[in-house]
Design brief:
The protein is α/β, with parallel strands linked by helices. Helices cover about 50% and strands about 10% of the residues. It is globular, with a radius of gyration of 19 Å. The chain binds coproporphyrinogen III. Coproporphyrinogen III binds near residues 53, 66, 72 and 135.
Length: about 350
């Protein structure tokens, strides 16, 4: 999950100097620096490369801007065949070369014990941004295209899958130890629609990156499609705080690692309460194998860094206390040994 960002004063400082978020992403030195900031400050067990799921859309020819307080805006949303056919199938090693360079810089500077994660948006989530032109809770334009022009929607999903697959491969070649596929918005779909509209392209992604690196799949509010997600073949499932974690481990732990799932909003509580909630989560998991402790979504910008520190410290104590964990092995972050 997102662990760098505006809640960290050292991030704010780099962002100010760079002039903006996209400028930071596109500068490998700055991207490497902000990737390492949470590792330095908190001693987490994994770093996630500082980038964004929307950069491949930009590389495919879509204008992209981040407006202060408004989040991402794509001023030329894809709503017809003409625009979709003009979408370029980007070549990540050329069009997203700065991501590879940032990965190489981070890997060289990171303790070999700390995992480095690459990531991508899943085709459905990218389609949501591309069709809506930004973040949308109701996804009206996506639904219209799905239901009125399913063939056109499938063409778009396939083009997105092509770029997702090559971008994951490129990140693995550039030093990523594991890969996260963020399907943030697919949880909005009812199960049948998920199967029909989100799963086919996602299945291609998992089929065509099999054996490359451990791959984690995250869906916000995706508790109703956990069985289906496991069937796609990821090595790990990242679940949000709505999911019953012990039950999920009991059901799926033999096939996948399960990452999660403290509610990031809990980090708005005082550090003692964060510690109490984190310990309670670990106690509920009870040392079940295959658990990767993490938040259920990214750190909110309003979070006090002290709360993140309390989470990480409690995790470390919990790991030391748990007999299921060999000495010296920690449970935060997302390292997965297969
Ligand atoms: O810890 C890290 O360094 C991870 C880097 C990372 C970012 N985005 C940086 C970022 C990751 C893994 C992402 C993934 C991402 N981006 C997702 C999937 C995961 C999720 O959170 O569901 C999505 C949906 C996006 C799209 C996106 N990017 C949105 C909706 C926003 C606005 C969010 C906000 O809080 O304003 C972004 C911007 C963004 N991406 C920021 C960061 C640090 C904030 C940028 C800033 O203003 O400085």
């Amino acid at each position: 999950m997102r662990q760098a960002g505006r809640y960290l004063p050292e991030y704010q400082e780099v962002r100010r100097k760079a002039g903006g978020f996209l400028e930071m992403c596109r500068d490998p030195e700055l991207a490497a620096e902000v990737t390492l900031q949470p590792v330095r400050r908190f001693g987490v067990d994994a770093a996630i490369i500082f980038s964004d799921i929307l950069l491949p859309l930009q590389a495919m020819g879509m204008p992209l801007v981040f407006e202060e307080g408004r989040g991402p805006v794509l001023p030329g949303p894809l709503r017809d065949e003409r625009r979709i056919s003009k979408l370029k199938v980007a070549e990540p090693s050329v069009d997203l070369g700065y991501v590879g360079e940032a990965l190489r810089l981070v890997r060289a500077r990171l303790d070999p014990q700390v995992a480095l994660l690459g990531f991508c948006g899943a085709p459905f989530t990218l389609a949501c941004y591309a069709i809506e032109g930004g973040t949308s809770r109701t996804q009206v334009h996506v639904r219209r295209m799905m239901y009125h022009q399913p063939e056109l929607f499938a063409v778009l999903m396939d083009k997105l899958a092509d770029v997702v697959i090559s971008h994951l491969r490129f990140q693995a070649e550039s030093g990523a130890d594991a890969l996260v596929v963020f399907d943030t918005w697919a949880g909005q779909l009812a199960r049948d629609d998920w199967r029909r509209f989100a799963a086919p392209a996602l299945q291609r992604v998992f089929d065509e990156t099999a054996g490359l690196r451990p791959r984690l799949l995250f869906t916000l509010d995706g508790g109703h499609v956990l069985d289906e997600q496991v069937a796609l073949g990821p090595e790990g499932l990242a679940v949000d705080w709505r999911v019953d974690l012990p039950a999920c481990l009991d059901r799926h732990g033999g096939r996948v690692a399960v990452q999660g799932n403290l509610d990031p909003a809990v980090l708005l509580a005082p550090p003692e309460e964060v510690a109490r909630r984190t310990a309670a989560l670990l106690a509920a998991v009870g040392g079940r194998p295959g658990h990767v402790l993490a938040l259920g979504h990214g750190v909110m910008k309003e979070t006090d860094p002290e709360a993140v520190a309390a989470f990480v410290e409690t995790a470390r104590e919990g790991a030391g206390a748990s007999s299921a964990q060999p000495p010296g092995r920690r449970t935060t972050g997302a390292r997965h040994d297969g």
